[in-house]
């Protein structure tokens, strides 16, 4: 279980209550966050990024990753504050400050900014609103968002293309992309956006390539991967179903038996 308190439309405070919580995320906007307590492990094609208490991280938009939240060393639940830098705010900032068109950003998707005293001070200034969210008005949130952008630009030149590369995902090789990302349990609309397509075009292209619907293909692919992990890697079904993209164990178990004719646990 996780409690999310939206202080304003783009500023979020979240706190977990389960001992270990696994989830998958797709952020259409850049996210700047600080870990207040506990731990968050982010798994993506770039590798693993771990946030512990005090870690400050900037995450690039249009990224897909799995997240595992855990209590800290003394048992405190994971909690963090995130500021989402949406495209409207960045376009407005670029216009107001005459920032020219930027080249395509090709650097890291997750940047560690821990130790930046100015960003630490920025997040410290948001903490009082956690207990008094009504004090964070829309106007104040807009000012805070602009402050975050300004602080990032002062940190280094790399953040200008990071923030102001407004190009949308281009139409990529769908077969390769889906075979690398099928285990992420996100809506089809998110898969479509990441593949540079509208939802209708995504479904049409998908059917041409795989000769089946995305829903059927995803379930079959995830079940085949689960069978491999259980039978060859000797992993338990309870350790596999989330890894391959199923939401709950009971649905996974029934789908597995229907396809393979045997209970996953019997393997």
Task: Describe the model.
There is one protein chain. The chain has 267 residues and is α+β, with helices and mostly antiparallel strands. Helix content is 41%, strand content 23%. Helix 6 (188-194) crosses helix 7 (199-210) and helix 8 (214-231) crosses helix 10. It is globular and about 60 Å long. The model has no long low-confidence stretch (mean pLDDT 90).
Under CATH at level 1, the class of the largest domain stands as Mainly Beta
Q: How big is the Rg?
A: 21 Å
**Biggest sheet statistics:** 6 strands, antiparallel
Number of helices: 10
Please tell me the CATH architecture of the largest domain by its name: Sandwich
Which percent bin holds the helix content? 40-55%
Our count of domains comes out at 2
Number of separate strands: 10
Strand content: 15-25%
The arrangement of helices and strands along the chain is EEEEEEEEEHEHHHHHHHHH
Low-confidence parts, pLDDT < 50 over ≥5 residues?
Answer: none
Question: Could you state the oligomeric state of the chains shown?
Answer: single chain
The chain-level mean pLDDT equals: 90
**Shape designation:** globular
Give the helix/strand class.
Answer: alpha+beta
**Strands side by side in the biggest sheet:** 1-2-9-4-7-10
């Amino acid at each position: 279980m996780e409690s999310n308190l939206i202080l304003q439309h783009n500023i979020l405070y979240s706190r977990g209550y389960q001992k270990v919580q696994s989830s998958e995320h797709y952020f259409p906007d850049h996210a700047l966050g600080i870990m207040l307590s506990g731990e968050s492990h982010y798994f993506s094609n770039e590798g693993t990024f771990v946030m512990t208490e005090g870690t400050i991280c900037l995450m690039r938009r249009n990224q897909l990753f799995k997240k595992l939240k855990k209590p800290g060393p003394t048992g405190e639940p994971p909690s963090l504050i995130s500021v989402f830098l949406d495209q409207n705010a960045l376009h407005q900032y670029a216009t107001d400050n005459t920032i020219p068109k930027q080249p395509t950003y090709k650097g890291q998707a997750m940047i560690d900014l821990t130790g930046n005293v100015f960003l630490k001070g920025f997040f410290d200034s948001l903490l009082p609103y956690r207990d008094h969210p009504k004090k964070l008005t829309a106007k104040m949130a807009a000012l805070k968002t602009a402050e975050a952008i300004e602080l990032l630009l002062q940190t280094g030149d790399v953040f200008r293309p990071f923030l102001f590369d407004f190009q949308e995902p281009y139409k990529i090789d769908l077969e390769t992309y889906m075979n690398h990302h099928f285990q992420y349990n996100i809506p089809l609309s998110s898969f479509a956006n990441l593949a540079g397509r509208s939802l209708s075009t995504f479904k049409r292209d998908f059917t041409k390539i795989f000769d089946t619907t995305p829903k059927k293909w995803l379930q079959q692919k995830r079940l085949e991967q689960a069978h491999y992990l259980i039978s060859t890697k000797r992993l338990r079904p309870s350790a596999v179903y989330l890894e391959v993209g199923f939401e709950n164990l009971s649905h996974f178990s029934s789908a597995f038996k229907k396809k393979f004719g045997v209970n996953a646990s019997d393997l």
